[in-house]
């Protein structure tokens, strides 16, 4: 078969193997959504740890606790942000396999540890987004909340976080868009996302270029409209803030 790219051949491949690609799209969106959701939860914990101010403890103990927690949270963020996602996926997946942390269903094992890997990575980035969002809230808000009798935790939960969420929503949407593309690295451990399915079709048709162009088109169809929606959302949020 000729190696020259052919739109006709690409169309025939799509007609025959579209179900493979749609399965990849489903898994890509599923992993991306839950990775960002888990990343938000983890990011809140990490951001809270880096900003934690323990109360009602001895001065030296308080200083030690704060230092340990901040060190661990900072180390987590710096390590995961300074290493490639692919390396993290490989270490976590093969490390879990070496430790015998497998399920009876191999596909579920791949999905579980793949999701854990990208969630941990997302949490490191989102913790900084959340921390900056909290930092953007006017400083007097916390003091005012404490002045009316709220504890540190209550002030954060009922006063600071609701205002911070407004600041970080566009960044969360951007993280979801980014995660859709980053999940492509999970094909290295066998997760049936878009790139993995493109590889399956390539193996069946011996047409590499057409198969990966289809994958690129699918990513574009998903990511481009979402990016435009996020940009429009950011403009609307900025206008509402300036009013």
Question: Which secondary structure elements does this structure contain, and how are they paired or packed?
Answer:
Elements: H1 7-51, H2 59-82, H3 85-98, H4 106-135, H5 140-147, H6 152-182, H7 194-205, H8 208-242
Helix pairs in contact: 1-2, 1-4, 1-6, 1-7, 1-8, 2-4, 3-4, 4-6, 5-6, 6-8, 7-8
Family: Belongs to the binding-protein-dependent transport system permease family. HisMQ subfamily.
InterPro entries: AA_ABC_transptr_permease_3TM, ArtM/GltK/GlnP/TcyL/YhdX-like, MetI-like, MetI-like_sf
Subcellular location: Cell membrane
What does this entry look like structurally?
Residues 25-230 form the ABC transmembrane type-1 domain. This is Amino acid ABC transporter permease. The protein is mainly α and 243 residues long. The protein has a single domain, classed as MetI-like fold (Orthogonal Bundle), CATH 1.10.3720. Helices cover 82% and strands 0% of the residues. It contains eight helices and no strands. It has helices at 7-51, 59-82, 85-98, 106-135, 140-147, 152-182, 194-205, 208-242. Helix 2 crosses helix 4 (106-135) and helix 6 (152-182) runs antiparallel to helix 8. The N and C termini lie far apart (62 Å). The model has no long low-confidence stretch (mean pLDDT 88).
